Amino acid sequence: MALEYNKKVMQYFLNPKNVGEIKNPDGVGKVGNLTCGDVMWLFVKIEKDKIKDIKFKTLGCAAAIATSSIITELAKGKTIKDALKLSNKDVVKALGSLPVIKHHCSLLAEEALCEAIYDYLRKKKRPIPKFLEKKHQKIKKAGNVCK
Amino acid sequence: MEKIYLDYSATTPMAKEVVKAMEPYFSEKYGNPSSLHALGKEAKDALEKARSSLAKSLNAKSVEIIFTGCGTESNNLAIKGVAFANRDKGNHIITSNIEHPAVLNPCRWLEKQGFKVTYLDVNKEGLVNPKDVEKAITKDTILVTIMHVNNEIGTIQPLAEIGKICKKKKVYFHTDAVQGFGKLPIDVKKMNIDLLSASAHKILGPKGVGLLYVNHNVKIEPIQHGGGHESGLRSGTENVAGAVGFAKAIEIAKDMKKEMEREKKLRDKLINSLLKIEGSRLNGSRTERLANNVNVSFKGVEGEALLIRLSQERLQVSTGSACSSKSLEPSHVLTAIGLTPVLAHGSLRITLGRYTTEEHINHAINVIPKVINSLRKISPF
After folding, report:
1. Which residues of A touch B323 (CB under 8 A)?
2. Which of B132, B194, B189 is nearest to B157 (CA)?
């Protein structure tokens, strides 16, 4: 089943964009856990409420690396408000398709972005939208359960 | 670009000689061995000749070899067949927790039918302790089933010692020898093995044919009923071409000692090189290990990602990572030998075979560290 990935997923897995860490990031989102085999870290730099720079580091399968990579591209340049609207469906759509068993990787990407923005808002002591607070709590709670 | 196949424990290419030996039985020699005419006799003779060669390779009698469709079927027949035929004697079966699913799942199914199963733990190298087998045997025990060589980590079990215990305790001993048959010498009489499963496609033979050796004293029932083929134990028109191919494959395997020495040198070269990579560890035993098996875990790398990147570099290998499995569970074998999920996710299995060359191994040695480094650059750990 390993090679059921489409060309675009393979392209993003083999040549991922925006790999690395940002020095002094404005926000960091860390999701997944080692037991499950997928860990995703997203770093964001935010200027005038826009995502100016975004980078990732991921330990995981080809799908986890591809979804990490594409979410950085989808989020870059977007306002915080618009970035928070990005869902795992957008991630799958941008990649064309993902094997059903790998859909949890797209969710991981969505959650990593939310967590990075949450981290930014929290550090800046800015109000956190209710839905984001709820989502953050949910992600934190589910953190040790493999999807 | 030519692919470099290093996944021989999954399956092997067929030897040209095997294909050639089988060909007539698809075309001009197409008879049904059950038919009484000349074409039928021709097929029957070929089938029996194949049976005889395979029996000899195990030091068994021809009548003790039952052809099946695959190793999984052989295991099912052995375990369920013995269990149901010996219900009057007891309902207890002993196995290990690192068996192939083709043994574990028939055992689990039998538990639902009222049988009791003991799953023995193995040590950190993946070895079953024969003393544990002896201790687990009760008056209700009817069958011990322990694999010959583990398919993931290549650990070779002490079959002769376990066989001795089973003989002493008058309990049937079955072994799933799918990985070891044709690679290590097996003498079912000397090793006190009552039932043994083997498969052709692991030793340059065709897919779709396996065998079960059943000692003539074993009480066993068929699980597939029909026209009474294969001494009534496996009904269904025989796969003549498959049997002929299987026999040819075991003929090729006659020089196994020399071949295993050759593979062992290549394997050790590869293991020694991979263990130089930081954050790596060998899974399984260094000494009690099949000559073709390498299983190494790397920290900070996930197996499926590693596999696909290696495939881009022509290498065809395997992993015990959950992300590569349909169930998203890490390998039960790696978990049983005490690996943390993290290390199980980062495992790589490389299995050598008859057509593996030094160039192939050098390519692996050259490519694997590069790919690991590139993935570690993406990884937060």
Report:
1. 37-38, 60-61, 63-64
2. B132
